[in-house]
Amino acid sequence: MAMLCRMQQMIENGSQFIIATHSPILIAYPNALIYEFSQDGIVTKSYKETELFNSYYHFLHDSDNFMTHLLQPKEED
Question: Using CA atoms, how far apart are residues 30 and 22, in angstroms rounded to an integer?
Fold first, then answer.
């Protein structure tokens, strides 16, 4: 949170940032230009369209189900 506040101060003074992160908080910065890297290449997305946002959203809304699905044994072919 402190980083976002400091970034705002620096942006007001003309700074720009390129940030690589897995933090849903940092990519929530208003009017940020977000590039998502995937198997489809590099795509510009809004905050709520990102895989990062959706992963955290689903985890926080139903962590038990998320963990069950994530940790269930994989079936062998």
Answer: 17
3-state secondary structure of 15: coil
Q: Burial letters for 48-75: b for 16+ Cβ neighbours within 10 Å, e otherwise?
A: eebebbeebeeeeeeeeeeeeeeeeeee
Q: Is the dihedral of CA 49, 55, 56, 58 positive or negative?
A: positive
- Record the pTM: 0.73
pLDDT one-digit tens code per residue, 20-34: 999 999 999 999 999
- The helix (H) or strand (E) run that includes residue 37 is strand 34-38
